Amino acid sequence: MDAATQMPSHPNSVWAATANPRSNLPCLEDDIETEVAIIGGGYSGLSTAHHLSKAGVDCVVIEANDVGWGASGRNGGMAVLRYKKGFSELATLYGDETTHGLYRLVMEAVDTLEGIVREYSIDCGFSRYGHITAANGRKSVESLEADIAWLARRAGDHGARMLDAREMRQMVGTSVYPGGYLDPRAGGVHPLNYARGLGAALHGKGIPIYVSSPVESMERDHGGMVLSTRRGRVYAKKVVVTTNAYTDLMPLGTNLARRIVPVSTSVLATAPLPSELASSILPQGQLVTDNRHLVNYFRMLPGNRLLYGGRGDITGKESPDIYRGLHSMLVSTFPALKDTAIEFHWSGKVAVTLDDFPHFGKLGEKIFYSVGYGGRGVALTNLLGKLLARLVCGEAVDAGPMNKGRFNPIFMHRLRIPGMQMVAGYYGLLDKMERQA
């Protein structure tokens, strides 16, 4: 059966509208055997397959929908050289030695992404555009300055620098930010083209990728694992779960879904802007994420469109109010866009964790996982796919809090939605207070 005829459509995103054609990947219709079965055809699963293949390990990828259907094809396409918490705060929490290790890993993450793009000549618009972390207020400026100081003092890294309010106006095109943190080494991609390009490259080198094949059960059998789909089964020695924020949609028999909280994020993309107006917004092409508790992010796209993203509906539903609120934030940032048409809007899910780190590891001896990127997955998924492949191969891996820290089921997980509503309200108040300070 042609998988394309039964595959759920991608959301109404600017990425889907401008994407390269999808590959004609099959759905699973027979029983197969493999050494490692990877559940999830997003960046994490594809990166894991890439690195397992390079290690000579036989593997297959099983995807419920399409390659890049989830967060991998819906995100802002920003490969950022920072974690959710800044380096100075991480040093306070974990110490300088652990934080220096985390610093090296995040640098390696973007290098890994770039290496994969180059190895397979993936047409995804990858470039080191540079990334600006925009300060929400004076306190935020001070925290970013502390990060710059930590990088210079402890890592000998002078690549990032602070921007004052004047430079922010020149480089971003708005006066709402009192300062910012620029790292010119950060990268950007067309996220859906990257997922499709990597999937096609892996399929072309003989790694089976099955789409439209949701896993309906996962069971142990004779020292291995059996994954059952509608029309076929996979017999594997080991299983890797990389379903991230969509883990709760699959009956895998693990408690991974209770270790993360799926959070909705929503995105707008404008109609093409007049050349003069477009040239006044991010004229040097950097990507921007602010450091509010309820984060907003934006970038200019080819064709003079502005992409602007932020928090979605807490319940995960498509809500017109969310898009109106997001548009209000866009206009408050760029008042000249008040009457600009919005041509695309879409939502998706990211998975957050209690410590703001992604986590990878193993459940017993047969099941491995990587989840919880919290909106920082464009770079980190590629890194963790590499590290997870090493773990599957039996190597010892130390990624600090990402695989050595606690990652237990979240207490009272079933009450996460009212809890998130309370936290979102509190964070919104903090953001407002800091901006006014």
Automatic annotation (TrEMBL):
Enzyme Commission code(s) on record:
1.-.-.-
Record's keyword terms, sorted: Oxidoreductase
What the entry lists under Pfam families is as follows: DAO
- Domain FAD dependent oxidoreductase per the UniProt entry, residue ranges: 36-391
**Which top EC class is given?**
oxidoreductase
Tell me yes or no: is Oxidoreductase among this UniProt entry's keywords.
yes
Q: Which GO terms describe its molecular function?
A: oxidoreductase activity
Report the PANTHER family cross-referenced here: FAD DEPENDENT OXIDOREDUCTASE DOMAIN-CONTAINING PROTEIN, SARCOSINE DEHYDROGENASE-RELATED
Report the protein name in the record. NAD(P)/FAD-dependent oxidoreductase
UniProt source species: Candidimonas humi
